[in-house]
Amino acid sequence: MTEPALTPVKPPFWNNPRTRAIAFQAIALVATVLFGWYIFNNTQDNLRRLGIASGFGFLSSPSGFDIVQTLVPYSPTSSYGRVFWVALLNTLLVSASGIVLATLLGFVVGIARLSKNWLVSRLALVYIETFRNIPLLLQIFFWYFAVLRAVPAPRQSLHLGDAVFLNIRGLYLPAPQFQPGFGWVLAALAVAVASVWALARWARRRQMATGQPFPVLPVSLALLFGLPLLVYWLSGSPLVWQYPELHGFNFRGGWVVIPEMASLLLALTIYTAAFIAEIVRAGIQAVSHG
Q1: Is residue 27 pLDDT above 80, yes or no?
Q2: pLDDT confidence bin for 8, thresholds 50/70/90
Q3: 9 part of a folded domain
Q4: Residue 238 belongs to some domain of the structure
Q5: Which residue range forms the structural domain that includes residue 84?
Q6: Is 150 in the same domain as 280?
Q7: Model pLDDT for residues 53-78, shown as the tens digit of each residue
Q8: Residues of 51-64 as b/e, b for ≥16 C-beta within 10 angstroms?
Q9: What is the pTM for the complete model shown?
Q10: How many domains does the chain fold into?
Q11: Residue 14: closest CA among 6, 1, 23
């Protein structure tokens, strides 16, 4: 005689592990939200009692201070919101410039690290092991206080012709001034880039079909430089350069790279390039010789 099969009894919902896990998470979430709401209200009450303003209303108030280097128009009467955008654009400028410069320098040092020339290889090794082991903040201080603060005053500036000047207040460079009609030059450059892309695709298909190569590189260079230069000449050279000039105790005109930004950019470039160099070296050595 066989015994009847026993069917499992479903436990009450409060004993179900899944239900209890969801309940505990919900209770923890509600408790966290209530605690945060209590802290927020308590902080608001204390600030109101002490007469301390809070919120983002200050963004529309005049800043009252000047910023030397800006990518957008700015004056001491501009708002704190304008200060935020100026700071954001300056940060993006340093980041983009640092990425490009560090990549180029790191690639060169990484290739030099693999050189069969003993001196070149050891110099690259010394660079990598030195700069990547020095804290970034210390390198920023070095470039700012030990190097850039030691250059001469504006009247005794180090100069390269009558175009580039270096002094304790920064590096002064010629600034481009775009005239009406320069948009045609940019349009010609865009057409040249699109033409180079189309030419490269056509040359690849032609070589696959006929086996005959096409001189893509010289034709591409001719398009990239020749077409914009031709349009630039035909449109009356719509680009002039504003050179920095010494007036009194400082330079006016041109574009200035202040010492603070220069030291930050130098330190970021040199420090990051040391890591990029090792990545380049390791990537090349990881490829099999076969």
Answers
A1: yes
A2: low
A3: no
A4: no
A5: 63-154+259-290
A6: yes
A7: 777 878 888 988 888 888 888 999 99
A8: eeeeeeeeeeeebe
A9: 0.72
A10: 2
A11: 23
